[in-house]
Amino acid sequence: MNLSLNISGALLLVFASASVVRAQAEKDDGGHVGIVAEVKGTCWLQTQSSQRQVTASTRLHTGDKVRCDDLKGKEGRLTIELQNTQTAGKWRTTIDPSPKDEWTTIRGGPLQRRDAMRDPLDDWFKLAGSPRAGTLAWVYSPSGGSPGSAVWPASFVIRWIPQTTAGNITLAIRDESGNPLWPRGKDRRAEVAATAGELVAPDLRQELVKYQAGGRQGPLTLVVTNPEGDESRIVFKVISKEQEDTLLRQLAECNGQEGILPYICRAYRFRQLGLYTESAEVYEAALKDYAPDSLDLVLHAIAAHRLTGNYRREQALTHQLPAGTKLPE
Amino acid sequence: MACHVPSFRSVLLWLARSVLPGLIWVSLLVFKCYFDDTAPGKLLERAVYALLQTRLTRDGSLPVAVVDISRLDARQIEGHPSPREQLRRVIDAVVAKQPVAIGIDIDFSPEGNGWTERGGPQLFDYIQRLKIPVFLGVSRSRYDAPESWLGANEYKDLAVTISVPRDDNRTLPLWIGNEECSATVAGLLGRKDLIPPAASAACLPSMSTALAQRYRGNKDRESCGWEWFARSSSIKPLDQKKAEYFWVDYGAAQSVQDQLSQATALGEHASLNINHALMGFQKRIVILGNTQWEVTPDKYPIPPWEAETPGVFFHASGVYTLIKGPLREITCEGRLLLDPGIGLVVGCLGLLGACLLHGRRLKEKSAVQKHSMRWWKNWAMIFLFAGLGVGFVRATRILWTDWLWACVAVLIQGWLEEHLEPYVERKRQRNPKVWCRFIFVLIDGGKE
């Protein structure tokens, strides 16, 4: 009996000690800001209390120091992975071999702004735009200049470069199965003067809203025939309701910015969804209302119009550039 | 030649005639206010700025040198030392030459997945241990909070912006932040009366500012107290922040290019070929950057000839400008004081010249002689204005361009005199009313 009690007591003591040690260990590791992702050769970790050789998966804490041996032929190299404290993403960096007294200090998780403007600003400085895809299109809403274009049903307007010839163009939209979506009825087509340049059709918007509400995104095809009888087809998608909700929230965030940032932000958000025409319109608004002489804005507007296929506006803006300005590629 | 002392009446007539160029000049200045905002106005402004760039004074010895690092790898290549190690070796080699400070014209801002291959904590820690200050360029993160410039709060003091305005390459930023940051450059620009920024203020200095401040040390430029007359910088909104810009003297850019040094780092140690014209880097600022036009996307048209030039030469020109003394832009108050003043000087010189050369005998001259003298007089005034204007800019580094408009005013006056005089003469004979006399006097000085 006594023996069994002693064994039970000893086991309890062992379990309790193990729990304490484990808890202590968990507490220690709770503050780590990164790990060693990869080690080549000999590398060292110096903490407040000790110095030891680094192995893969070693946890790194703020204030720890690392270095790798630079012995000839035995150079060490570390890859460390630090947690970004704001984005929850991970940043990798390497530690090259260095002399014995040169340590690199772990400064804590790296910080990088993560707000409504992070991605739009990154994108702005890269002068996002893509090479013109396919042939020059004379219809630019929906965008005929790039694949993957989308439309926003509630504000959709068909736009084209006004034709100089008299006569009408005909328009029709077909769904992914080739059935007429607008105007309703087999072989029906809307007719409008080729010189008009745009068509605002409330019935078309209603059809697209209904189409969107049905959870469908397309692709849809706009069939356009010019006065000479040449037919063009522009394939586009409709943004989903979820995308629209997210977009509205993002646009509200954009509106909270100041200066040129709302324009940069809105143009970026539109472009991310393939709403190239809306994106180009934002840059046009910025040029008109905010900074008519901004070279950066003109360059971005040119890139945006390329995506829509509005080559006439692209050319007009290009002529505004000072001689020798490099165009976005 | 004896000087014929002009009569009181002829002086009065001369003064009356001076009203005409004065009126023309004032009209032109009013017109200029509107013209400045038009595209031709901006072109003309740029042209004048370019002209002045070629006329600013030069020092023989440049305080800034550029080392080309385009031969260093930006990405890891198998068998080569890492890009960071190559850069470090070059920095070691430059530090050994004991420059005042070093700037590196590379964007060390973190990218989406972390630090660049050249940047990172290891390089930043190494630089912090150096005795010679080294500043690292940031561009992508320049609008972010200080802890984001280089990825951690501990590195923020190394960061400098290397942005070059694309819409106006005549200026470079002094800092990005808020108005408080203006006080950080007061000593550099010879300004006072500014309250130092709060410790929490996020002021990202430009490379030119940081390097020029290190060069000058604690020696603040003597405050001249004429900011009201000619300002050395202007603050403009920049997204959610603000930035202060200064006008750059690009006159040294060509000399810096001619004195380019070269660095390579493929062997055990960096190879640093210092340009023989420099005789070392002591007492100089050194900027490391990619100067190879063909391979760098970081290039912009540089005044005065707008040739595309790598950005590192812009920063070198910025440092040169701030070390030598800022260029100044004349204010409205300054213009109101200076324009009539110069006009008065030219007018007096004109009067003296007229007295010495022609005196009252002008009336006795034939029409051809009068035309010839008028032609000489006008061109003498144009050269006088141009000489005074350029001399003023050279001496004061104040970008005063109204002398050009004064020259235009003289040309217009000459044209009016030439073409309106016969017309006025006819009118005088037909309509000798008293109220017309003033106009006659303005046009032709009145006939006896």
Describe the protein.
The complex is a heterodimer of chains A (329) and B (448). Chain A is an alpha+beta fold. Chain A folds into two domains: 31-111, no CATH class; 122-320, no CATH class. Chain A contains eight helices and 17 strands. Chain A has helices at residues 2-29, 118-125, 202-213, 241-255, 261-272, 276-289, 295-308, 311-320, and strands spanning 32-40, 43-46, 51-53, 59-61, 65-68, 77-83, 90-95, 104-105, 139-141, 150-151, 158-160, 168-174, 180-182, 190-193, 198-199, 220-225, 231-238. In chain A, the strands form four sheets. In chain A, strands 10, 12, 13, 14, 16 and 17 form a six-stranded mixed β-sheet that branches. In chain A, a hairpin with a 6-residue loop joins strand 6 (77-83) and strand 7. Chain A is elongated, with a radius of gyration of 31 Å. The N and C termini of chain A lie far apart (87 Å). By secondary structure, chain B is α/β, with parallel strands linked by helices. Chain B folds into two domains: 8-55 and 330-444, no CATH class; 64-326, no CATH class. Chain B is 45% helix and 15% strand. Chain B is built from 13 helices and 16 strands. Chain B has a seven-stranded mixed β-sheet with strand order 4-3-2-12-1-10-11, with helices on both faces. A four-stranded antiparallel β-sheet of chain B has the order 6-5-9-8. Chain B has a three-stranded mixed β-sheet with strand order 7-15-16. In chain B, strand 10 (261-264) and strand 11 (271-273) form a beta hairpin. Chain B starts with 7 loop residues before the first helix and ends with a helix. The mean pLDDT of chain B is 80. At the A-B interface, strand 7, strand 8 and helix 2 of A face helix 4 of B.
